[in-house]
Design a protein that fits this description.
The complex is a heterodimer of chains A (530) and B (335). Helix content of chain A is 33%, strand content 25%. In chain A, strand 16 and strand 17 (339-341) form a beta hairpin. Chain B has 335 residues and is mostly helical. Chain B has helices at 3-9, 24-40, 47-72, 80-93, 99-122, 128-147, 162-165, 174-192, 194-204, 206-211, 216-242, 253-263, 275-298, 305-334, and strands at 152-153, 167-168, 172-173, 244-245. Chain B has a domain at 57-251. In chain B, helix 2 packs parallel to helix 13 and helix 4 (80-93) packs across helix 11. The longest helix of chain B has 30 residues, at 305-334. Classes of the chains: A alpha/beta (530), B mainly alpha (335). The interface between A and B is medium-sized, with 35 and 27 residues.
Chain lengths: 530, 335
C-alpha cells in the first residue's frame, strides 16, 4: 500500500546499536478535535544533531504534531520521551524552558522592542535589580556572532526583514539552551541568499548537537539540509527514511498515499471529440503575488483545464490573479477573447462573466450567518434587484431551481448555511457562481473536505457543465480528480508553469512525474512529462 | 404573542434576512415591565405619559437605528451624540427659515460628519472606534465654537418648533410620526433591498464579500452616512423640542444607542442585526427611566439620578445575559 515503513521501534533499535540515545521520541500519539481525529498513532524519533523533515499535504497533521510536541495541544493518548524521560508540557512556554523551542512562520517576537530585548526577554542580566544593558547587548551580540551576524542590537526588531527576525528567534532559542528547535516553514518568505544564511545557521546548530524538526513543503530544500524525513498523511506518520534513501518522486507518492507503481498509466477517458480551438483565456508570464514567477497557458472554450502542483506552488495565486485579487502585486498579461484585460477588483471579472470558487469555504466562501437562499444569491443582486429592491419571487425561483438541479440538501432555503454539510455548502457556493451564468468558472479544490458521495456528484456536475459549453479552470491536489475530470493539465512548480499534459498523455503517473520533476524548467514544453 | 411572528404571518411581511436576532428576551422584559408599571402607577398608561415617553425616546430610537446599521457591518459610531448636539446648534440658527429648511440642514450636518467618518475608515484605513472617537471630539468642539458655549434659542415665529412639539392630526406628536416613518424605511432597507444583504454579508465575512464582487467600501460608506444623517434628524428634534440648540446635550448618547442595539440582541461582531429589536431595545432602556421617575413620584423611595444610572446599568446586564442564554440554548437545540 505504501512505500516501506520503518516503525519508531526499529528506528530506536538502530539508535541503540549505535549507542546514541534519541533526544526525543513521540510514540503512538493520538489527538482528536471534537471527535474528528487529527493524529492517529503518530510517531517521531529525533536524534541529537539531526535535521528531521516532516512533510505532508494540507491537513495531514503536521502542525498538530508540532503543537502536541511543544505543549500547545494536549495529546489524547501516547507518550513523549524527552531525553529519555516522559515529558508532559502544558504550554509552549514550559516546552521552551525544558529546551524545545518553536520558530513559527510568523515570527512571534515583539517587533517594536530591540533585538537585545527580544533575545534576553525574561532572563535579562541584572545589576542591583536593574537591567544591565551593557551586558545584555554584549550577550545578544555574541549569540548572533555565532551565526556570523553583526547587527545593531539596540535597534527595534521590526527595522529588520523577516529573514533576520527569524534568525533572532533562533538566537533566542539557542540562548535559552534549546536542545530541539522546531521550524515551521522557515523558508517560505526568504529569498535564495537569505535561505543560504538560514541553512548555515541550521548546520551550525546541528554541529553543536541541537536536533531540528524542519516542516516544509519545498521538497527540493530537504535534500540540501535534512538528514531524515517523516512523511505524514491523514494524521498518520506513514513513513520515515534517511533522506539519501528516498527520491522526490517517492516522497510525493507517499504524501499522496500511493505506491509509485500504483499510479495508473491509464490515460484519461475524456479525449475530446473535437479539438478545442477557440482560445477564451490566455495567461502570459504571470508573476508576483509572492510565489508566481512565470505562468503561461491557454484555456479554450468548453475545456476543463486542470492546474496541478504541490502545496505552495502557486496554483491558487494564478486564479486569484486572473480574478483581479492582489492586483497591485501581479505582473503579466491576461487576455480574455483575445482582448488584454486588467481587472482591478473581482466585480470587473464577474462582469465579464468569470466566476471563482475559492479554496477555503470558511475563510472566503460562505457567509455563515446568512441562509442558503441569501448565500446563493449574493453575487446575483444586480440581476434580481431592481433599483436595489430585491425581487423576492424571482429570487425564490432561482434558489429553488438550483437547489433541485444540484441536489442541495437543506431543511429549507432559509436554513443557515453554516448548518449544512461541507458537500452541500460547496454546492451552494457552486450554485452561487452558476447563477451568474459565467463563461469561465475557476474552481479551487472544488471537492476538498467533502464526503465521497458528494464529491462524485460535484465532479459529474462540473463535467456536464463543460459539455454544455462552460469553460472550467480546475485546481486540485488530487491527481486522480484531474485525470478523471480534466481535458488537459498544466503543472505548476515553484510559481512556474513547467509542463503541459495533453489528454492523450494524461495519467496520474504523468502528473506525478511532472510535479516531482527535479529542476523547474523555465519554459512551457509541450507534453514533456509523458 | 410575538410581534415578529405575527408580522411573519402577514404575507409579504415575513423576515427576509435569516441573520435575524432572537427578540424573545426583549419582548418578555418589555411586557413584564409594562404589566408591572401599569398596575403600580395610575398615570403610567395615560395618553399623556405614553405620548411624552415615546416623543422623548424618538431621538434615542433614531440614533439606535443608525448605530444598528453600523454595528451590523462590524463597526461602531461613537460620534452620534456629538453630531446630535452639533446639528441642534446649527439648525437653531436657521430655525427662522422654517422646518422645510432646517430639517435638510440638520440632515446635511449629519451626512457631512458621517461622510468624514466613512472616508477616514474606508480610505485612510483607520479603525471605526478611533475614527469616530475623533469625530466625537471634533463635532462637540465645533458645536461649542458655533454656539459660544451657550444654548442657541430657536425662532418661535416659524413652524420650526412644530417638528418637536406639534401633533399630526392633533393627535400623534410629530417626533413619534418621524420615528415610525424612519423605522419603516430602515426596516425595508434592511429586509427588502440588496443593500441590507450586502451590509450583513460584509459584516459576516468581508473576504468572501470582496470575492463575490460586493462593493465593500461603498457599503461601509453608506452605513456611516445613514448613522450620521439619523443623528442629524435627532438634533433637529432636540432643538425644536427644547426650543434651543444644545451644544452640551447628547453626551453619552452614543453609549445609549449601542446599549439599545445590544439589548436588542445584535452582536457587536457584525453580520447579524434587526431593526425591530433595536427599536424595542431603545424603548426598553427608556422605560427603565420612566418607571424610576414614577417610583420617585410615589414618594416612598427616592432614586437620585446617580442611582437611576446604576439601576439602568444593572438592568442592561440582566437583559443581555438573558438574551445570551436564550441564543445559546437555541443554537444547542439546533445542533
Amino acid at each position: 500500500m505504501t512505500i516501506t515503513t520503518k516503525t519508531a521501534a526499529s528506528e530506536a533499535d538502530t539508535a541503540a546499536n549505535n549507542s546514541v540515545q534519541p533526544i526525543l521520541q513521540m510514540r503512538n500519539i493520538n489527538k482528536a478535535f471534537s471527535g474528528v481525529s487529527a493524529l492517529t498513532d503518530a510517531s517521531l524519533t529525533l536524534m541529537p544533531g539531526e535535521v528531521h523533515a516532516i512533510i505532508g499535504q494540507n491537513g495531514a497533521g503536521k502542525s498538530t504534531l508540532i503543537k502536541v510536541l511543544n505543549g500547545a495541544h494536549k495529546l489524547d493518548s501516547g507518550d513523549i520521551l524527552y531525553q529519555g524521560n516522559p515529558a508532559d508540557f502544558n504550554s509552549p512556554h514550559e516546552a521552551q524552558v525544558a529546551g524545545i523551542s518553536t520558530i513559527f512562520q510568523e515570527v512571534n517576537l515583539i517587533g517594536y522592542r530591540s533585538i537585545t530585548e527580544n533575545i534576553c526577554l525574561g532572563y535579562e542580566p541584572t545589576r542591583f535589580g536593574m537591567v544591565n544593558w551593557k551586558k545584555a547587548h554584549a550577550h545578544a551580540r555574541s549569540m548572533l556572532a555565532r551565526f556570523g551576524l553583526d547587527l545593531a542590537v539596540e535597534k527595534p526588531l521590526q527595522d529588520y526583514n523577516i529573514a533576520i527576525q527569524q534568525l533572532v528567534a533562533i538566537a533566542r532559542a539557542v540562548a535559552l539552551n534549546a536542545k530541539v528547535v522546531i521550524m515551521d516553514e522557515p523558508t517560505s518568505s526568504l529569498d535564495d541568499k537569505e535561505k543560504e544564511v538560514l541553512f548555515k545557521v541550521i548546520r551550525e546548530l546541528q554541529a553543536s548537537g541541537v536536533a531540528i524538526v524542519y516542516v516544509s513543503h519545498h521538497l527540493d530544500e530537504l535534500f540540501q539540509i535534512c538528514d531524515q524525513v517523516t512523511i505524514m498523511r491523514d494524521g498518520h506518520t506513514v513513513a520515515q527514511h534517511a533522506i539519501k534513501d528516498i527520491s522526490k518522486l517517492q516522497m510525493v507518492a507517499a504524501m499522496l498515499g500511493r505506491d509509485i507503481a500504483d499510479f495508473s498509466d491509464q490515460t484519461s477517458q475524456n479525449a475530446a471529440q473535437q479539438p478545442f480551438s477557440e482560445v477564451l483565456l490566455e495567461v502570459e508570464n504571470l508573476a508576483g503575488a509572492g510565489v508566481l514567477c512565470d505562468v503561461s497557458f491557454k484555456l479554450h472554450r468548453g475545456e476543463i483545464l486542470g492546474l496541478a502542483g504541490l502545496l505552495g506552488a502557486g496554483r491558487s495565486e494564478v486564479a486569484r490573479a486572473i480574478f483581479g485579487l492582489d492586483k497591485e502585486r501581479v505582473k503579466g498579461k491576461i487576455c480574455v477573447d483575445n482582448q488584454q484585460v486588467s481587472y482591478d477588483q473581482p466585480i470587473d471579472a464577474i462582469n465579464s462573466k468569470i466566476g471563482f470558487c475559492s479554496e477555503d469555504r470558511k475563510e472566503d466562501g460562505i457567509i455563515p450567518q446568512l441562509s442558503v437562499r441569501e448565500n446563493l444569491t449574493l453575487a446575483l443582486m444586480p440581476k434580481i434587484a431592481k433599483n436595489g429592491l430585491i425581487n423576492e419571487t424571482k429570487e425564490r425561483e432561482i434558489v429553488t431551481s438550483f437547489m433541485r438541479s444540484l441536489g442541495i440538501k437543506a431543511s429549507s432555503m432559509e436554513q443557515p448555511i453554516s448548518q449544512l454539510s461541507g458537500g452541500n455548502q460547496q454546492k451552494v457556493l457552486l450554485a452561487r457562481w452558476l447563477a451568474t451564468e459565467p463563461r469561465i468558472l475557476m474552481l479551487d479544490e472544488p471537492t476538498r473536505g467533502i464526503d465521497v458521495g458528494a464529491k462524485a456528484e460535484i465532479q459529474n456536475l462540473i463535467k456536464s457543465l463543460a459539455k454544455k459549453g462552460m469553460t472550467v479552470l480546475m485546481i486540485s491536489s488530487e491527481f486522480e480528480e484531474l485525470v478523471d475530470g480534466a481535458d488537459r493539465v498544466i503543472v505548476i512548480q515553484a510559481g512556474k508553469s513547467v509542463s503541459e499534459i495533453t489528454s492523450e498523455n494524461l495519467s496520474e503517473n504523468a502528473i506525478v512525474q511532472a510535479v516531482a520533476h527535479e529542476a523547474p524548467r523555465s519554459s512551457l514544453t509541450k507534453g514533456s512529462a509523458a | 404573542m410575538n410581534l415578529s411572528n405575527m408580522l411573519a404571518a402577514i404575507p409579504g411581511m415575513s423576515r427576509h434576512n435569516s441573520a435575524s436576532v432572537r427578540t424573545e428576551g426583549v419582548w418578555i422584559a418589555l411586557i413584564l415591565m409594562l404589566i408591572f408599571a401599569g398596575l403600580r402607577y395610575d398615570a403610567f398608561l395615560s395618553e399623556y405619559n405614553i405620548m411624552t415617553f415615546l416623543s422623548y425616546n424618538s431621538m434615542f430610537v433614531l440614533i439606535g437605528l443608525g448605530m444598528c446599521f453600523v454595528i451590523m457591518t462590524g463597526g461602531i459610531d461613537l460620534s452620534v451624540g456629538s453630531v446630535v448636539a452639533l446639528s441642534s446648534v446649527v439648525v437653531a440658527s436657521v430655525s427662522h427659515l422654517g422646518i422645510e429648511v432646517a430639517l435638510p440642514v440638520g440632515i446635511l450636518v449629519g451626512v457631512g460628519a458621517g461622510a468624514i467618518n466613512a472616508f477616514v475608515i474606508t480610505k485612510l484605513k483607520i479603525v471605526p472606534f478611533i475614527a469616530t472617537l475623533a469625530m466625537m471630539l471634533g463635532a462637540r468642539g465645533l458645536a461649542l465654537v458655533i454656539s459660544d458655549n451657550q444654548s442657541v434659542p430657536v425662532s418661535w415665529e416659524s413652524n420650526f418648533t412644530q417638528f418637536g412639539l406639534g401633533k399630526a392630526f392633533d393627535f400623534l406628536p410629530w417626533p413619534i410620526v418621524t420615528m415610525l416613518v424612519i423605522f419603516a424605511i430602515c426596516w425595508v432597507l434592511l429586509e427588502k433591498f440588496s443593500f441590507g444583504r450586502h451590509l450583513l454579508s460584509v459584516g459576516g465575512n468581508e473576504d468572501a464579500s470582496k470575492l463575490m464582487g460586493l462593493q465593500v467600501d461603498r457599503t461601509l460608506f453608506s452605513v456611516y452616512i445613514i448613522s450620521g444623517a439619523l443623528a442629524g434628524v435627532a438634533g433637529v428634534m432636540l432643538a425644536s423640542g427644547y426650543g434651543a440648540g444644545q451644544p452640551l446635550e447628547g453626551m453619552g448618547w452614543e453609549l445609549s444607542a449601542i446599549a439599545a442595539v445590544v439589548v436588542g440582541g445584535t452582536l457587536l461582531t457584525g453580520g447579524v442585526g434587526s431593526m425591530t429589536a433595536t427599536l424595542l431595545g431603545a424603548i426598553l432602556l427608556g422605560l427603565i427611566f420612566n418607571i424610576l421617575n414614577f417610583e420617585n413620584g410615589l414618594g416612598s423611595i427616592s432614586f437620585s439620578a446617580y442611582w437611576q444610572s446604576v439601576i439602568r446599568g444593572g438592568f442592561l446586564l440582566v437583559v443581555v445575559v438573558i438574551q445570551a442564554k436564550i441564543i445559546n440554548r437555541q443554537t444547542m437545540l439546533k445542533s
